[in-house]
């Protein structure tokens, strides 16, 4: 028996137990696996009443589409949302973690969260891991100081902008923004511009696809328009579907009943004291 | 020789949602690269009566991960005096995998269970815990590319258990037939609120 410590549930943070083994495997010529990325086109813009965020819904694993309708706009606080591009596990984990930290902070201070708080928590975490936590984020929200929109890069640098795009489809989306953005957009104009930018990413970038998600955040509240536009429906399905006249050959069948039938005896003898 | 770690043992896993039921299926081959060493390998394990976990990828990591998850679930049962909901279990698996972000387990889990109100729940993750919650089907393993195609065309909404079994079996067998590293039959579990039907499929043994 090796002299290793008994494994107790860890208190949090990363565990590097398997690194030595994985390094040994890499030296023997074993290629590390590819992680699920979110290819992605994510955008945000500031309009007259607040902030609008937009994202596509494709998740890729190498060249294969593994999720045709995933959610890339993550909840951070009732007035703050964050779109994530990069390694899917990293964007989900980092936004979940900062969302919990913001909630604890709200309990502590008794006030609505500010966008700069979320920004600082995210950038400190990402810088701490020197870019190895591969999350590129577009953070937007409305707080007491007004509407804010920021981009956060995997190494921890941030920008504060009136309109922003990230992800593999960022150039396609930025082209739309640069030509059509103006200050003081109305809600409908803003949603239309965001939708157009995401569509540009969906149709021109191979890493982005499927539907458009939009999130409108104003001082009054937020409106999460999941699948606001679905420009890629499945039109080729046969309404009859597949039928299998020849059944699959079965070698063995085992049936395990789940709910045990219990007989309830009414008015039985009372238990002896 | 350069090898892909996920192709060392070979595997095929699929889970599909039906009407108040779900099916989870796997192949039965265990190999060391191109040599087959077992044809009755169990990839799908029961966590509790209404929750099943399938683990594809490196078999040694799959076994270790399974043992850790059973340990955590037993602790949960002792503390909470009830079984874990599938959604909670999926979060647990995701957290355990993400904990090892920079030195991961080489596994891709497929989780399938019946939640509250007998609503079926299926989910898969990549090796660092990025959850994918699907409403129709999820796939994992070396045969995953073929499985995506087969399931995409054969899936129908709201299938009854018998039809669901037939669909899952056909999708699995046709996909593993196009993959050298998985096959040698199939193992299908169809779970409804009242019973679990476990069936072994006859497939090509090559």
UniProtKB/TrEMBL annotation, chain A:
InterPro entries: Ntn_hydrolases_N, Pept_T1A_subB, Proteasome_bsu_CS, Proteasome_sua/b, Proteasome_suB-type
Domain of life per record: Eukaryota
Protein name per Swiss-Prot or TrEMBL: Proteasome subunit beta
Chief site of localization: cytoplasm
Organism of derivation: Hibiscus trionum
One GO term describing the cellular component: proteasome core complex
Catalytic activity of the protein: Cleavage of peptide bonds with very broad specificity
Subunit structure: Component of the 20S core complex of the 26S proteasome. The 26S proteasome is composed of a core protease (CP), known as the 20S proteasome, capped at one or both ends by the 19S regulatory particle (RP/PA700). The 20S proteasome core is composed of 28 subunits that are arranged in four stacked rings, resulting in a barrel-shaped structure. The two end rings are each formed by seven alpha subunits, and the two central rings are each formed by seven beta subunits. The catalytic chamber with the active sites is on the inside of the barrel. Component of the proteasome complex.
Family per record: Belongs to the peptidase T1B family.
PROSITE patterns, per the entry: PROTEASOME_BETA_1, PROTEASOME_BETA_2
Record GO terms (molecular function): threonine-type endopeptidase activity
Role summary: The proteasome is a multicatalytic proteinase complex which is characterized by its ability to cleave peptides with Arg, Phe, Tyr, Leu, and Glu adjacent to the leaving group at neutral or slightly basic pH. The proteasome has an ATP-dependent proteolytic activity.
GO biological process: proteolysis involved in protein catabolic process
UniProt-annotated catalytic positions: 40
Record keyword Ribonucleoprotein present: no
Keyword line: Cytoplasm, Hydrolase, Nucleus, Protease, Proteasome, Threonine protease
Location relative to the cell: Cytoplasm; Nucleus
Pfam family, one: Proteasome
Automatic annotation (TrEMBL), chain B:
Single GO cellular component term: nucleus
Entries under SUPFAM superfamilies matching the protein: N-terminal nucleophile aminohydrolases (Ntn hydrolases) (SSF56235)
InterPro entries per record: Ntn_hydrolases_N, Proteasome_beta_3, Proteasome_bsu_CS, Proteasome_sua/b, Proteasome_suB-type
Single GO BP term: proteasome-mediated ubiquitin-dependent protein catabolic process
Pfam families membership: Proteasome
Keywords tagged on the record: Cytoplasm, Nucleus, Proteasome
Subcellular localization, as worded in the UniProt entry: Cytoplasm; Nucleus
PROSITE patterns according to UniProt: PROTEASOME_BETA_1, PROTEASOME_BETA_2
Biological function: Component of the proteasome, a multicatalytic proteinase complex which is characterized by its ability to cleave peptides with Arg, Phe, Tyr, Leu, and Glu adjacent to the leaving group at neutral or slightly basic pH. The proteasome has an ATP-dependent proteolytic activity.
Family note: Belongs to the peptidase T1B family.
Subunit (UniProt): Component of the proteasome complex. Component of the 20S core complex of the 26S proteasome. The 26S proteasome is composed of a core protease (CP), known as the 20S proteasome, capped at one or both ends by the 19S regulatory particle (RP/PA700). The 20S proteasome core is composed of 28 subunits that are arranged in four stacked rings, resulting in a barrel-shaped structure. The two end rings are each formed by seven alpha subunits, and the two central rings are each formed by seven beta subunits. The catalytic chamber with the active sites is on the inside of the barrel.
PANTHER family for the chain: METALLOPROTEASE TLDD (PTHR32194), PROTEASOME SUBUNIT BETA TYPE-3 (PTHR32194:SF10)
Protein name: Proteasome subunit beta
Biological source species: Hibiscus trionum (Flower of an hour)
